[in-house]
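Schema walk-through. Below, the input block comes first and the output block second. Nothing else is stored per chain. Lengths vary across the set, and this one has 352 residues.
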Amino acid sequence: MIPPMTTLWQDLPRPIFTLAPMEDVTDTVFRRLVRSWAHRWGAPGPSVLFTEFTRIDSAIRSTPEKPDGRLRSTPEEAPLVVQVWGTNPAEFEEGAAALEAMGFAGIDINMGCPAWKVRKSGACSALIGTPSLAAELIAACRRGTSLPISVKTRTGITIAETDRWCRFLLDQGIDALVLHGRVADEMYDGWADWREIRRTVEIRDSLGSRAAVIGNGDVCSLDHALRLTEQTGVDGVMIGRGIFFDPLLFARNSPTPPPPWEDLPLQERVGYLVEHIQAYQQEWQGKRSFEVLKKFFRNYFLPHSPRETALLRRLYTLGSPAAVTELLEEACQAEPQDQSVPARKASISSQA
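--- output ---
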């Protein structure tokens, strides 16, 4: 077994809680907001953050002064791990050197995305079936950088092959293994099998590896994540879609946590949305479509509220941040004020 080279993953306090890399979701804006909202409530926020899913050749074309859009970041996001995908070892070696020069804290190789458009190229979860190429990509990163290397993957392609596949990856000397408890063909159907994740911890321990094992799949809260660390022995948990149901999820381990998301009045939830819209516009200046931001709108409204559902439908028809903000302000002015919830966010009117 090749020993891990660096200590980022070993040095992070346990349990590690991290936000999953998600395409068109975890851009530099959303990463900063998730962490700052946690800090606002007195919580530490995610232990480590990940960039969006990024092609390795984008790293080759990027420089610290002019990064690809998916590689944009700020010091507030540190430690920040860049997630890359591809199939060309030469590009991984060159790209790894470029990513180290850009100041990332680690490199994560995506070997788990189940989308057919990337699998058919031999990348991501297709690498589960081509372990020799997977090993070449890891080794190429090692040649290009001294940064810690992690792999995010699934338990198999059609059936779980945890013993073969995860043992193989750990034998490559990776610093961390992030395992989603489904096979690729399941996409996001059914439920993640955390028994396979627990089995990976057992394999890691039997090998005497120092690699961190991070579990992923169907985690809905920090309390849930903490229970899973206790039940499986993982070093930490990666949370993805759970953030859509509670944008303040990473604030929940504060000594003074916010009220449940559904208990916050509309004006306060809208205040978080307006903050998101304004930060997005300031960062991207039209270089990213406003339509991309619209996928976040539903996160800030209650699905069981007919009034809020109707408001959300109207928001989807609007084509500019100004129009959205104006409608939100009108909706909040019509909403009865609730003074029972302690505010940690300026009202919508003070942000205009």
